[in-house]
Amino acid sequence: MPLQPRRSILRKLTLVNMLVSGAALSLACLAFFTYDQVTFRQSLIRTLSAQADIIGSTSVSAILFADPQSATNTLSALKSSNSIASAGIFTLDRRPFAKYLRQGEDASFIVSLPTIPEGQVETYKLGNSHVVLVRTIVFQGQPVGLVYIRADLREIDQRLKRYTATALAVLLLSLIAALLVSSLFGRSVAQPIVDLAKVAATVSQDKNYSIRAAPSQEPDEVGLLITAFNQMLAEIQRRDDELQKAHDELEDRVTQRTRELSLANRELEAFSYSVSHDLRGPVDALNGFTYVLLKEYGDKLDAQAKELLQHIRGSGRRMIQLIDDLLNLSRVSSSVLQSEPVDLSAIAHSIADELARLQPSRSVDFIVSKVDRAHGDACLLRIVLDNLLRNAWKYTSAHEHARIHFGSIFENGRTVYYVRDDGAGFDQRSADRLFQPFQRLHPTAEFPGNGIGLATVQRIVRRHGGEIWAKAVVEQGATFYFWLATPRPRSSTADADSRQTTVEA
Prior knowledge:
- By secondary structure, this protein is an alpha+beta fold.
- The chain folds into three domains: 9-160, Beta-Lactamase (2-Layer Sandwich); 209-334; 337-504, Heat Shock Protein 90, CATH 3.30.565.
- It has helices at residues 9-58, 60-64, 68-75, 154-206, 221-297, 303-334, 344-358, 378-395, 453-463; strands at 84-90, 96-101, 122-126, 130-139, 142-152, 339-342, 363-369, 374-377, 401-411, 414-421, 467-473, 477-483, 500-504.
- A six-stranded mixed beta sheet has the order 11-12-10-9-7-13.
- Helix 1 runs antiparallel to helix 4 (154-206).
- The chain starts with 8 loop residues before the first helix and ends with a strand.
């Protein structure tokens, strides 16, 4: 089932449009509000300065003739301005001369006058709720007093509230308009993309490449995308048809070749078995006749004739052994695998005991580690260990004291078994010849054998889905490694050298 989108592209476009519109309007309102606040405060300061100048000019005579009542009457004209909370006229030594208080105001507001900087005629102090302006009264170029005006900023707060309400109303209406516009015009952009996504999901789920997206009527990027998508589907459909056709042809060829190969293998196995079986009869007869000849007429033959007959018998025995090995190799290739858990350590123990009984005079340390159980054919895996351990026994025979070790290591996520000896070894450059039938790296006179054992081992290991290889140094020993299919998880008892049993031969 195709995954459903958590949020459609139409909703995203609408949300983006509303966010952009809201952000733009908010920034515009903030800019206008900041500008209004700055200009209003500057305008208020200019108005207060003009009023202070008028009051000062009108109050010059009252100050000069010490007429506070006249100055108070002049200040009372400020009652027409709702923003002025208090005002006053002071002498140059900053003593109150006349004052004005708006109804309800406290006279304690007039506590101190800001100091006018030198060279200026007025100064002001802007607070959070009030602004105070002090201006010098000048007559004939000489200061005669001070005018004090204190105005509140309630009008600014009122303007802010009105502006905020207006801005919220405009913002709400704009967002509603943006929502409507996005709903109307967003569909023309988003709907083709939504339809294209549905087609893509259907193709992905059903693997039906014959489906096509409806072409767009607009020659824009979306229309180009839909056209390219349809062309891609057509190309995939063409290649898929060609691939399916080639796959069907290949399956037919593989089936035919497999049938032919299976038939050829059966014929080859039958031929090998027949040849080996037919050869065995004449060779057995040859060995029997030479035995009778030696037994019945041995006293009539000279020493050279007896030696020749012994050579004939030895060659016959080697031929019998070679035929037996060929038959075993044929059976290994054709037998049915019986997969089961196999204790390789127990098999190695039994083979080591058997070799020790055959040649009790040899001094060999057999070390068998406790390894993970393998999964495979027990009989065939016994043949593997028997060949590897007997090879190690044979190629250490020239050493007075030898050491043979069977164990395992955990490598690349699988258990790798090994048989290691300290015997004759071989040249590593010739390692690729080890597992070829009848290939030997040592002379028969030095180490007897016919070169079939390791070829048999390789076939068994490969039939179990594994691989075998060897590493060696001349006169320093050899190590044969092999692994089998279905790697087993490493257990706490699978350490190659954690548990060892030594058998003295």
